[in-house]
Amino acid sequence: MTIDTSNCNFSSTPLYFTSMSGISMHWTIIGPTNIYSQTQNSFRVVIKHSVDAASDTSAELYADAQDKKWSINWLGVLE
Fold first, then answer.
1. CA angle, corner 36, sides to 10 and 41, nearest 5?
2. What DSSP line would sit under 26-78, residue for residue?
3. Which candidate in 2, 22, 53, 78 could, as Cys together with 48 as Cys, close a disulfide (CB 3.0–4.6 Å)?
4. What are the beta bridge partners of residue 48?
């Protein structure tokens, strides 16, 4: 997923830090702290189920995220 940070009006690409929260099973997800394609306006994270990750589909992850109220928490810090 791409996280849009454009509303923050960063003057350059910040250091991004992420975590994941939810009401259950968010600790079984891999990838939410791996940050890709950072710019001053966005970054990407790729998440998968840690158990049987080969069978993940976007629909399964989306359903779990909705049901378990998963969120990506992030912070951007300019050096």
1. 20
2. GGGEE-TT-EES--SSEEEE--EESTTGGG--HHHHHHHHHHTT-EEEEEEE-
3. 53
4. 30
Q: In this predicted model, what pLDDT tens digit does every residue of 33-71 receive, in sequence order?
A: 999 999 999 999 998 887 665 556 778 888 888 999 999
Structure tokens at 73: 């928490």
Tally of domains within the chain? 1
Task: Give the residue from 39, 77, 64, 38 showing the smallest Cα distance to 47.
Answer: 64
Radius of gyration over every alpha carbon of the chain, rounded to an integer in angstroms = 14
Containing 2, the helix (H) or strand (E) segment is: strand 2-4
Token pair in block for residue 16: 């991004």
The residue range of the domain holding 49 is 2-77
